[in-house]
Amino acid sequence: MEEIRWGMIGAGSVTELKSAPAFSKVPHSRLVAVMRRDGAKAEDYARRHGVPLWTTSADALIGDPQVNAVYVATPPSSHADYAIQAMRAGKPVYVEKPMALNYSECLDMLKVSRETGLPLFVAYYRRTLPAFLKVKELIESGAIGKVLTVELKLFKQARERHQKPEEMNWHVNPAIAGAGYFYDLASHQFDYLDFLFGPVTLIKGVAVNRAGLYPAEDTVSTLFTFANGISGSGLWCFVADKSGETDLIDITGDQGRLTFSSFRHGDLLLENREGLHKFRFVNPENIQFNLISQVVAALRGEGECVSTGESAARTSHILEETVRAYYAQG
Under the phi-then-psi rule, with left for phi > 0, alpha for psi from -120 to 50, and beta for the rest, what region is 39? Predict the structure, then answer.
């Protein structure tokens, strides 16, 4: 493909800065069409972002000959339908994370990708950000020796504590999100661990609802292992007090330790026999820029992309296994 002309389905807040502007900043790539069900909002979005075409119909966008690649930026409940429709129309797809509502839908998407021969990419952009690449470099260079364990901890306040059900974010509606905030946020973390250490081979999880604010789980714990013997654990709580808010990944080796945040983008700390080292990095203005650059290069036959449907489906499988017992109850 000489020029990648993107059509975007969905135009929510995640696209305003994180992704959409990058499609027209990457060389040989342009955002040429946007779809949103609300015509006034679609027109406003197109005007503000300099997108020449807008529509209220996903069918029209996918079928438009001016569009030769599709970005699906809707909630997870429609990812599979739109991605499959686009691939069957002969257009490669870049889809927001998590990849789909559930693992079964991920497999359906991969099946169509194989049948059509069209690539499928997923927006796990931490695989391309400077701090996270530095962690990978330090591990592979032996800066902390042999990796033994990894621990995840993410505690956040509940914005829903004083909201009515109809005011709550779709992220806590399992029918739309697949589960709760665990799917939205832990998906980034597990995908990144897949990037570092390969697929998780065993996971045991417990998901509960402690605050009763919404139907989805709000507190999760896991134990997991990788094929190379690294063991891990994780704790997530999305109804914590402000005093308990935490965002930490702790990777321990037999000669040192790495600690950093998943979402705060603060310092990366390396502690080893040579002392304490701090690293700070600046992310691109549009945080998906580096990954979208890889997607465009892959579509042009000039490189490979580190986040594919295959890797993203593994993450969805891990998420689903973790909360399975909670949703099996009711």
Answer: alpha
Q: Which tokens sit at 119?
A: 């690539």
Cβ 200 vs Cβ 222: under 8 Å: no
Are 178 and 50 part of one and the same domain? no
Residue 129 reports pLDDT greater than 90:
yes
d(CA 210, CA 82): 35
Q: How confident is the model at residue 266 (pLDDT cuts 50, 70, 90)?
A: confident
Same domain, 135 and 274: yes
What does DSSP say about strands 4-9 and 69-72: parallel, antiparallel, or unpaired? parallel
- Per the DSSP assignment, residues forming a β-bridge with 113 are none
The total of other beta-carbon atoms located within 10 Å of residue 108's CB is 16
Q: What total of structural domains would you count in the chain? A: 2
Determine how β-strand 246-253 pairs with β-strand 147-155.
antiparallel
Facing residues of 226 across strands? 200
- DSSP annotation string for 193-231: HHHHH--EEEEEEEEE-SS-SSSS--EEEEEEEETTS-E
Model pTM? 0.97
Q: Which residues contact 16 (CB under 8 A, 6 or more apart)?
A: none
Q: Which domain holds residue 26?
A: 4-124+287-304
Q: Do 166 and 258 belong to one domain?
A: yes
| Domain identity same for 48 and 109 | yes
Q: Same structural domain for residues 258 and 297?
A: no
Which domain CATH number covers 267?
3.30.360.10
Amino acid making up residue 22: A
CB atoms within 10 A of CB 58: 22
Q: What is the pLDDT of residues 11-26, one digit of tens each?
A: 999 999 999 999 999 9
Q: Report the distance separating Cα 112 and Cα 109, nearest Å.
A: 5
Measured between alpha carbons, how far is residue 217 from residues 236, 289, 324 in Å?
A: 10, 32, 11
Separation between Cα atoms, residue 198 and residue 177, nearest integer Å: 25
> Is residue 152 a contact partner of residue 234, using CB atoms and an 8 Å limit?
yes
d(CA 20, CA 14): 9
